[in-house]
Specification:
With 133 residues, this protein is mostly helical. The chain is built from six helices and two strands; from the N terminus they run αββααααα.
């Protein structure tokens, strides 16, 4: 199923763009009662992510699973991408700045996070649909 690999690759690209933008702008994660700090941003991006991207460990796992999905190990890679898709599709709307950008369109992040959210949901559905049947 190459479609899942292509969707994941594009979603990964958007995640990396979001990571770059958050680092450049100095914006940190902010969901629920958890908030990042500009002082610990470079450490936090590995474990908690930023307001515009998943944690770096998830992006690395997504890159590896996408590569495997496009080559040989499709069943295990598909499940991994599905699980990552679920986590990401829950993560984007959990971020305060993303919710604000979706309510009041923001030129710099609304399209980025909206498309990334849709692709993450597609990853979840395509990656887990065999397990659900």
């Amino acid at each position: 199923m190459r479609l899942l690999g292509v969707i994941s690759a594009v979603q990964l690209g958007l995640g990396l763009l979001g990571l770059r933008k958050a680092l450049r702008d100095g914006t940190v994660y902010d969901f629920g009662f958890l908030r990042g700090s500009p002082a610990t941003m470079k450490r936090d991006l590995w474990f908690m992510g930023t307001n515009l991207s998943a944690p770096a460990w998830m992006l690395l796992a997504q890159a590896l699973a996408t590569f495997l999905q496009m080559t040989r190990h499709r069943s295990s890679a598909a499940k991994t991408l599905g699980i990552l898709g679920v986590m990401m599709s829950l993560g984007y709307p959990a971020e305060k700045s993303v919710r604000q950008a979706w309510r009041h369109p923001n030129r710099s992040i609304t399209a980025l996070t909206g498309v990334a959210e849709l692709l993450a949901a597609a990853m979840a559905w395509l990656g887990l649909r065999r397990q659900l049947q």
